[in-house]
Amino acid sequence: MRHNILPIVVLMSITLAGCASNIQWKAEPQHLPACLPDHAPTWEEFTKSYGNYKHSAQTAVAITLAQVNPPILQARFDPEQSWVQPQIVEAWYPYEQSIANQLLRHEQLHFAISCLLVRQANQTLKSGDDPRQMLQLVRATAQRLNRQYDEDTKHGTILAKQEQWENDVEEQLKEVTELRPPNHTHAAAKF
User: Fold this and answer.
1) How far is CA 130 from the centre of its chain?
2) Are 120 and 129 in contact (CB under 8 A)?
3) Fewer CB in a 10 Å sphere around the end CB: N or C, the chain?
4) From CA 119, how far away is CA 53, in angstroms rounded?
5) Phi and psi of 168, rounded to 5°?
6) What is the pLDDT of residues 78-87, one digit of tens each?
7) Is 138 helix (H, G, I), strand (E, B) or coil?
8) Would strands 83-84 and 47-48 be described as parallel, antiparallel, or unpaired?
9) Could you tell me how far CA 118 lies from the centroid of its own chain?
10) Is the peptide bond before 37 cis (omega within 30 degrees of 0)?
Protein backbone atom coordinates (compact mmCIF):
# COMPACT_ATOMS: atom_id res chain seq x y z
CA MET A 1 0.00 0.00 0.00
CA ARG A 2 1.42 3.34 -1.01
CA HIS A 3 0.50 6.43 0.97
CA ASN A 4 0.25 9.23 -1.59
CA ILE A 5 0.58 12.38 0.43
CA LEU A 6 0.63 15.26 -2.08
CA PRO A 7 1.25 15.22 -5.82
CA ILE A 8 4.91 16.15 -5.57
CA VAL A 9 7.57 14.66 -3.30
CA VAL A 10 10.85 15.32 -1.56
CA LEU A 11 14.56 15.05 -1.14
CA MET A 12 15.86 12.80 1.57
CA SER A 13 17.03 9.24 1.76
CA ILE A 14 16.13 6.79 4.46
CA THR A 15 18.38 3.80 4.99
CA LEU A 16 17.39 1.00 7.29
CA ALA A 17 19.89 -1.79 7.80
CA GLY A 18 19.36 -3.66 11.05
CA CYS A 19 18.56 -2.37 14.48
CA ALA A 20 21.26 0.31 14.71
CA SER A 21 20.13 2.24 11.64
CA ASN A 22 18.83 5.76 11.76
CA ILE A 23 17.28 7.73 8.97
CA GLN A 24 20.14 8.93 6.79
CA TRP A 25 19.32 12.51 5.89
CA LYS A 26 20.37 14.22 2.71
CA ALA A 27 20.38 17.98 3.16
CA GLU A 28 18.54 20.16 0.72
CA PRO A 29 20.72 21.83 -1.92
CA GLN A 30 19.58 25.32 -1.00
CA HIS A 31 20.53 27.92 1.56
CA LEU A 32 17.08 27.96 3.19
CA PRO A 33 16.01 24.40 4.04
CA ALA A 34 12.37 23.46 4.42
CA CYS A 35 13.22 21.25 7.39
CA LEU A 36 14.92 22.50 10.52
CA PRO A 37 17.21 20.96 11.47
CA ASP A 38 18.14 19.75 8.02
CA HIS A 39 18.89 16.28 9.38
CA ALA A 40 17.02 13.50 11.12
CA PRO A 41 16.75 14.31 14.84
CA THR A 42 18.82 12.22 17.23
CA TRP A 43 18.02 11.30 20.83
CA GLU A 44 20.40 14.05 21.94
CA GLU A 45 17.97 16.60 20.48
CA PHE A 46 14.99 15.29 22.44
CA THR A 47 14.21 16.50 25.96
CA LYS A 48 14.53 13.76 28.55
CA SER A 49 11.23 13.49 30.35
CA TYR A 50 10.67 11.69 33.63
CA GLY A 51 6.89 11.95 33.43
CA ASN A 52 4.48 9.06 33.63
CA TYR A 53 3.50 8.80 29.96
CA LYS A 54 1.67 6.14 27.99
CA HIS A 55 4.42 6.14 25.33
CA SER A 56 8.21 6.20 25.50
CA ALA A 57 8.78 9.19 23.21
CA GLN A 58 7.04 11.93 21.26
CA THR A 59 8.11 14.06 18.31
CA ALA A 60 6.77 17.60 17.93
CA VAL A 61 7.09 19.50 14.66
CA ALA A 62 5.94 23.08 14.06
CA ILE A 63 4.95 23.86 10.48
CA THR A 64 5.32 27.56 9.70
CA LEU A 65 5.38 29.99 6.80
CA ALA A 66 8.85 31.50 6.24
CA GLN A 67 8.86 35.15 5.22
CA VAL A 68 10.99 34.81 2.10
CA ASN A 69 10.38 35.47 -1.57
CA PRO A 70 9.02 33.22 -2.98
CA PRO A 71 7.28 32.03 0.19
CA ILE A 72 7.99 28.57 1.54
CA LEU A 73 6.76 26.42 4.37
CA GLN A 74 9.15 25.06 6.97
CA ALA A 75 8.91 22.07 9.29
CA ARG A 76 10.79 22.75 12.52
CA PHE A 77 11.59 19.99 14.99
CA ASP A 78 10.69 21.30 18.46
CA PRO A 79 13.20 19.87 20.96
CA GLU A 80 11.36 21.34 23.94
CA GLN A 81 8.09 19.59 23.06
CA SER A 82 9.80 16.44 21.72
CA TRP A 83 10.67 14.09 24.54
CA VAL A 84 11.99 10.65 25.32
CA GLN A 85 12.00 8.74 28.58
CA PRO A 86 15.59 8.60 29.88
CA GLN A 87 15.67 4.83 30.35
CA ILE A 88 15.25 4.48 26.58
CA VAL A 89 18.37 6.44 25.63
CA GLU A 90 20.39 5.17 28.58
CA ALA A 91 19.89 1.50 27.64
CA TRP A 92 22.92 -0.71 28.27
CA TYR A 93 21.85 -4.14 27.08
CA PRO A 94 21.88 -4.95 23.36
CA TYR A 95 18.19 -5.86 23.32
CA GLU A 96 17.25 -2.57 24.99
CA GLN A 97 19.53 -0.67 22.59
CA SER A 98 17.78 -2.40 19.71
CA ILE A 99 14.41 -1.23 21.04
CA ALA A 100 15.78 2.32 21.48
CA ASN A 101 17.06 2.37 17.90
CA GLN A 102 13.75 1.04 16.59
CA LEU A 103 11.90 3.75 18.51
CA LEU A 104 14.27 6.44 17.22
CA ARG A 105 13.57 5.37 13.62
CA HIS A 106 9.85 5.58 14.37
CA GLU A 107 10.19 9.08 15.82
CA GLN A 108 12.47 10.21 12.99
CA LEU A 109 9.83 9.12 10.49
CA HIS A 110 7.30 11.40 12.19
CA PHE A 111 9.67 14.28 11.39
CA ALA A 112 10.28 12.90 7.88
CA ILE A 113 6.53 12.75 7.15
CA SER A 114 6.13 16.40 8.12
CA CYS A 115 9.20 17.35 6.08
CA LEU A 116 7.89 15.39 3.11
CA LEU A 117 4.61 17.30 3.20
CA VAL A 118 6.36 20.65 3.55
CA ARG A 119 8.76 19.96 0.70
CA GLN A 120 5.90 18.77 -1.49
CA ALA A 121 3.93 21.90 -0.64
CA ASN A 122 6.91 24.09 -1.48
CA GLN A 123 7.05 22.53 -4.93
CA THR A 124 3.34 23.28 -5.36
CA LEU A 125 3.79 26.87 -4.12
CA LYS A 126 6.07 27.50 -7.12
CA SER A 127 2.92 27.58 -9.26
CA GLY A 128 1.55 30.51 -7.29
CA ASP A 129 -0.79 28.76 -4.83
CA ASP A 130 -1.81 30.71 -1.73
CA PRO A 131 0.86 30.05 0.94
CA ARG A 132 -1.51 30.58 3.89
CA GLN A 133 -4.05 28.12 2.53
CA MET A 134 -1.22 25.67 1.82
CA LEU A 135 0.02 26.09 5.40
CA GLN A 136 -3.40 25.14 6.80
CA LEU A 137 -3.68 22.18 4.42
CA VAL A 138 -0.21 20.87 5.31
CA ARG A 139 -0.80 21.23 9.04
CA ALA A 140 -4.06 19.28 8.83
CA THR A 141 -2.56 16.64 6.54
CA ALA A 142 0.52 16.21 8.74
CA GLN A 143 -1.65 15.70 11.80
CA ARG A 144 -3.84 13.16 10.01
CA LEU A 145 -0.92 11.24 8.47
CA ASN A 146 1.10 11.11 11.68
CA ARG A 147 -1.95 9.81 13.54
CA GLN A 148 -2.51 7.21 10.80
CA TYR A 149 1.17 6.23 10.94
CA ASP A 150 0.94 5.59 14.69
CA GLU A 151 -2.30 3.63 14.28
CA ASP A 152 -0.98 1.49 11.40
CA THR A 153 2.30 0.69 13.16
CA LYS A 154 0.94 0.67 16.75
CA HIS A 155 3.56 3.31 17.54
CA GLY A 156 6.29 1.37 15.73
CA THR A 157 5.68 -2.00 17.38
CA ILE A 158 4.33 -3.75 14.28
CA LEU A 159 7.64 -4.05 12.47
CA ALA A 160 6.25 -5.06 9.08
CA LYS A 161 3.96 -2.01 9.02
CA GLN A 162 6.77 0.22 10.27
CA GLU A 163 9.01 -0.98 7.45
CA GLN A 164 6.20 -0.46 4.94
CA TRP A 165 5.76 3.16 6.04
CA GLU A 166 9.51 3.72 5.96
CA ASN A 167 9.68 2.33 2.41
CA ASP A 168 6.69 4.38 1.25
CA VAL A 169 8.09 7.63 2.65
CA GLU A 170 11.57 6.81 1.32
CA GLU A 171 10.18 6.18 -2.17
CA GLN A 172 8.27 9.46 -2.19
CA LEU A 173 11.24 11.39 -0.83
CA LYS A 174 13.52 10.03 -3.53
CA GLU A 175 11.13 11.21 -6.26
CA VAL A 176 11.67 14.85 -5.34
CA THR A 177 15.46 14.59 -5.28
CA GLU A 178 15.60 15.56 -8.93
CA LEU A 179 13.35 18.61 -8.51
CA ARG A 180 15.22 21.91 -8.47
CA PRO A 181 14.57 24.11 -5.44
CA PRO A 182 13.49 27.72 -5.97
CA ASN A 183 15.86 30.63 -5.32
CA HIS A 184 14.90 32.67 -2.27
CA THR A 185 15.60 36.15 -1.05
CA HIS A 186 15.51 36.61 2.71
CA ALA A 187 12.93 38.75 4.45
CA ALA A 188 13.50 37.68 8.06
CA ALA A 189 12.27 34.11 8.44
CA LYS A 190 9.27 33.75 10.76
CA PHE A 191 9.65 30.90 13.22
Assistant:
1) 23
2) no
3) N
4) 32
5) -65, -45
6) 999 999 999 9
7) helix
8) parallel
9) 9
10) yes
